[in-house]
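Changelog note: in this version the structure field was regenerated for every chain. One regenerated record is shown below for reference.
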Amino acid sequence: MQRNTSALTDGQFDVLVIGGGAFGAAAARDAALRGLRAALIERADFGGGASAECFKMVHGGIRYLQHLDVKRLRSSCHERTALLRIAPHLVHPLPIAIPTYGWGRRGRAFLGAGACLYDLLTWRRNVRLPDPQRRIRRTRFLSRTATLERFPHLQDPALSGAVVFEDGQMYNPARLVLAFVKGAAAAGATVCNYVAGERLLWDGDAVCGARVRDRLNGEEFDVRARLTLNAAGPWAEYLLAQPERFGVQQRAPFSRDAYFIVDRPPNCEYGVAVQGLSRDKDALLGRATRHLFVAPWRDCTLIGVWHRHFPDHPDEAHVAPQEIDRWIEELNTVHPRLGLSADEVTFANCGLVPFGETASETELSFGKESRILDHRQLHGVSGLVSLIGIRFTTARVDAARALDRLLEQHPMRTARPPTDKLPLPGGDIEDFDAFRARAHRAEPDVDRRALDALLRNHGAEYWQVLDHADGARGELIAGTTALRAELWHAVDREMAVRLEDVIMRRTDIAAGRHPGRDVLAHCAALMGERLAWSAQRIAEETASAQRTLERHLAREHGVARARSRSTAVAAGQAPRAAELQTMSS
């Protein structure tokens, strides 16, 4: 992928996709695979908004049992299977334990029956999954003793055990988005980041593209297209701010979904569902309050998700330190043996998703489906469909549905490509464990942790990164487990143009913790060599990345703890034995 804005002005496209998150990227790939001339633009970096900020779960739909919504349950399960199939390096199963207590809705019989019913409803969940390690296993049960061995904080006289179901988890959501973008580019789409859609172009009552701005140099130009898909997520409605065309816009409700990461290494592969204090008021079945999830991810722990109605501009979404204090208090109230403290928090993430009408922070009404708006029917405007996605899991199928609607206006009829079966770039792997073993035999001189991360992020294309090493095949970036070759590859072949593109989305350098100011400065200098940055530009990029990281960090002592942990991991030090006895997830 090469960033070339002039290619966006080269004639008329069949489809222009505005928004390079999961939904827009999936739509661009789908359109290109249909044989259409497609363009994809993103106002910041690909996957840099809600997609990168998600809880990293690939939901198979078990929660929809509470709403008796079997259609949505099966659709979500199908999409989880598709991601496990087409991106086996980036998506893997995650077992989750639901503790059971006494009888009734908290009991083993009630929850076990629901999970077993889910197994029956999703009996095709492993169709065409050749890798046994990527298959979703059936419901199983843990005894009280086995549950407490894994989750000692659940100590309660009423605890009877746990029901275990499996869902999916992403290794790196931003790289999963990038895989869709790379797939679009490989199929012939023109893709470009840091290009913002400023306003729509018109031919009578038809949209014929967009006036856009290159956010790196301020240049404005037109991108012309027969049809336009507005897939800008929470920013999508701002592109429709033309009352004479679309009427007075009343912003639909959005939820700011937030979670935080704590510095507790997992001691088993299970996540655990713990009951919080809020309630899904639309649920027909289920417990009195919603579950929060405590999930293992790499060498740390994710805790979330908290939902809050967010009426403000998407750029203003962030997590405040006092909110984390309140969430920790909530968890310690419900499960006092957790003993969480604020100084364990290393990162806080949030993104905006469609929401239901909600009266309070404890009585929640969740968005049910992605919003697909055909503006012919709504406003008499042709050539435009808006897609506001709700869950990363369903990005592929919702993008296809939106394209189907949009292409009703295209003279060339095209069939949907089998995007649920065609591997994403790097995803042509039948058995990941065997693939990993072969790679370790082939690359004995590359640090094992760095190679594992490389295999996860790049899959079958990892060798392209190593071949990009310019004689430094296994050389690490000081203070990290990332290779210099990854940084160079990101700049030369993955359209990384800002420091934060590299450290937060192309590599694992700032995955869930601050890597330290020295690492930022060093990476900026390496990028500067590649991109001929001035000393001033290097300093500006370092400062900008620092500000971005600070928005994700709860407190300065959290910064210090994250740096200390990153240094220990980079030095190969094992976690303390006491840490391994903490909460598994």
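Spot check on this record: The chain is about 35% helix and 20% strand. The first helix runs from residue 22 to 33.
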